Amino acid sequence: MTKTDYDLVIIGAGPAGLTAGIYAARARMNVLLLEKAVPGGQILVTDWIENYPGFPEGISGFDLAQKMKTQAEELGLKIETAEVHSLNLSSQIKEIVLKDRSITAKSLIIASGASPRQLGIGEDKFMGKGISFCATCDAPFFKEKTVVAVGGGDTAVQEAIYLTKFAKKVYLVHRRDELRATKILQERAFANDKIELVWDSVATGVEGFFGVEGVKVKNVKTNEEKTLKADGCFIWVGILPNTSFLNDAVKTDESGFILANEKMQASVPGVFAIGDVRNTPLRQVSTAVGDGAIAAVSAEHFIENI
Ligand code: NAP
User: Which of 133, 148, 190, 224 has CA 20 to 30 A from 19's CA?
Assistant: First the structure.
């Protein structure tokens, strides 16, 4: 095979990418991890992680990310801050195109994660002025105030509970009459006096001049519309894969999440997809690190056999 810059390039430094980096570094592969922002991924905006084995008291997302990054770097993993613009996967050598240069590799692991989905209710206008996707970042601004949280999944319920440490009241607006979140989170939300569930309802708009003053909601069963007076609106209605650089280079599902087999192998040989960007039945830190370990070993085997 023609010489390449690296044996392996990993895109994304969340728990999945960092774990792949740890395994690849221990296998003494010539590996580079690219991250466009700060290493850690979505756990950086997760206040407290209670379901990662080995931390019975829980651990802050920030601390867990730091520990993973430190472990990877101490093993010699090279992490570079760079955004991937596109990929050229048409030949055996994988080309990763950055802003100012291209990198070549024998194998590629895509661990670019996912980002919060928007509702189109004024996110652009009110971002930083009352609308937020990050309770860890913004909850302290809402001390003794009233906020709306939209969504019924793990993120919405977990973060709504976190918001009650600051806000005096949290409306949790969900489009059905049953939450999607895991049962232990549901139990805590139902037992929390500061949380008022607004069932069967969708957020349709935000009212306010300089900042959020209210959130318009519509009951999808009765069509009744009302405004919940609130100082903030947190939106947690699911995630979208971070794949703007992909340009159909590998196969995805209808929502854009990358299809991969049990070895994390995507539709192109030598290309692997892991963590939240992968079409997967469960998105957890524990599943992301499992994906990362499998992909690094798969990439090592792939390189040995070319
Ligand atoms: P999610 O599980 O996809 O839940 C999204 C929620 O938003 C659902 O309740 C959904 O309603 C609602 N929704 C979607 N589109 C909407 C719309 N247009 N209008 C109103 N509501 C809408 O997303 P997530 O909660 O962000 O979680 C993402 C992944 O991370 C999941 O796999 C989750 O398990 C995982 N996660 C785990 C933890 C944890 O273990 N503690 C914490 C955070 C995240 P329906 O229910 O009606 O579909």
Answer: 133
